[in-house]
Design brief:
This protein has 401 residues and is an all-alpha fold. It is 78% helix and 0% strand. The protein is built from 16 helices and no strands. It has a single domain, classed as MFS general substrate transporter like domains (Growth Hormone, Chain: A).
């Protein structure tokens, strides 16, 4: 009887370099999320536009996802990652200038530029799977996402301790810190040795394509995109409004930033086990579990407005995001590999972040119109629909199997 080697292979160095880069680059969005709405409330010409900077940040990510995927295929990932980091530096400096001169338009423009780089950062989870056996790709994704624990500490702490670092110019130092963090990613990005994406096969036999030259979209792919979009969108929807709600309840900007810190820890700490859970139970059950956590967060938000309610809600949102988003990432990567098109990854991120951008803007509008309770009730209704879709997909998959 043959002995099966069950010792997992050593993961490539790229996985750990991407984890470090994730810790640094991933610290940038929490600064924008923590301070974007607060700064928007002081600079925006209308209360309906207070979350527009966060929305512009998400729009930047959205519009860059498909071009980034095409550039990855043409030039490889590393040079595009380096270029993205340089764009992040320029965006952070533009935000700092906007705050310094009191220009809402300039601040939003910087947020848009800054968001372009996040399209690259979001694709680290796909890059981590290159050169890794298929049975260990979920684990590689989880390791990269573990870098987010560092992000959870670095980003909010910069937001908290840099507020009054420059006398007479609150929050400017936070965005200068963003520029330094983006610069710090460059040595690690330049050390990457990423192979060309293995699913790009220029000499392979042509496959049937649908509209826009993309392969036909499978049910599993669409369900993964819907789940990822609603999990990410619901998390952003609540997270964007949470600092405003906390300030409105009399809590300080520092307490709001600490809430975001605990939220980011919740987003990435489960990565210690998420990959193994997906290996054992499959991605669909873990996606469902993620949605359940987000629902629990919305229920906790509706139960009161104490500091513990806000922080607990943000932690549950983070955990739910991790399970749902990691599961959908693995599902999308498998569908892309089966179709032989890396563009499907870019399309998925485009659709997800288009939804997230709308959610972040709508969060400010709905919060101003109706308040924190109605906002979280909306999350419950949306996720109930998604939970039904994922459950139906699981039953269909079992019948086909």
């Amino acid at each position: 009887m043959a002995v099966v080697d069950t010792v997992p292979p050593r993961l490539p160095l790229n996985v750990y370099l991407l984890m470090i880069t994730q810790a640094l680059a991933g610290a940038l969005p929490p600064i924008m999320v923590s301070l974007g709405g607060i700064i928007g409330a002081t600079l925006a010409p209308s209360p309906y536009l207070v979350t527009l900077p966060v929305s512009m940040f998400m729009v930047g990510t959205c519009i860059a996802t498909l071009p980034a995927a095409l550039l990855f295929q043409r030039f490889g990932r590393q040079p595009i990652y380096v270029g993205g980091a340089l764009v992040a530096v320029s965006g952070a400096l533009t935000c700092a200038l906007g705050v310094l001169v009191g220009s809402f338009l300039l601040f939003c423009a910087g947020a848009l530029l800054f968001g372009l780089n996040i399209a690259c950062v979001q694709s680290y989870r796909f890059a981590a799977q290159q050169g890794v056996p298929s049975s260990y790709r979920a684990r590689a994704v989880s390791i990269v996402l573990l870098g987010g624990i560092g992000s959870a500490v670095i980003g909010p702490q910069i937001a908290i301790h840099s507020n009054d670092m420059i006398i007479g110019a609150p929050y400017v130092a936070a965005f200068l810190g963003q520029a330094l963090l983006a610069t710090a990613t460059l040595p690690f990005l330049l050390s990457l040795r990423l192979p060309r994406d293995p699913i790009a096969k220029p000499h392979a036999a042509p496959q049937h394509t649908g509209r826009f030259g993309l392969p036909p979209l499978t049910r599993a792919y669409l369900i993964a995109v819907v789940c990822g979009a609603f999990a990410y969108g619901s998390m952003t929807f609540t997270m964007t409004a949470a600092p405003l709600a906390m300030i409105g309840c009399g809590f300080s900007a520092g307490e709001a930033a600490l809430g975001i810190q605990w939220h980011i820890i919740g987003m990435f700490a489960p990565s210690f086990v998420t990959g193994r859970l997906i290996d054992r139970f499959g991605y669909r059950p873990i996606m469902v579990l993620g949605i359940v956590f987000v629902v629990a967060g919305a229920i906790l938000a509706l139960s009161g407005q104490a500091l513990a309610n806000f922080w607990g809600t943000l932690v549950l949102l983070g955990i739910g995001w991790n399970f749902a988003y990691t599961g959908s990432t693995v599902m999308i990567a498998r569908a892309s590999a089966a179709a032989g098109s890396v563009a499907l990854q870019g399309l998925a991120d485009f659709l997800i972040f288009a939804f997230v951008a709308v959610a972040s803007l709508f969060a400010g509008v709905l919060f101003h119109w109706s308040g924190w309770a109605v906002l979280n009730t909306t999350v419950l209704v949306a996720l109930a629909i998604v939970l039904g879709l994922v459950t139906l997909d699981s039953r269909l998959a079992k019948r086909i199997a």
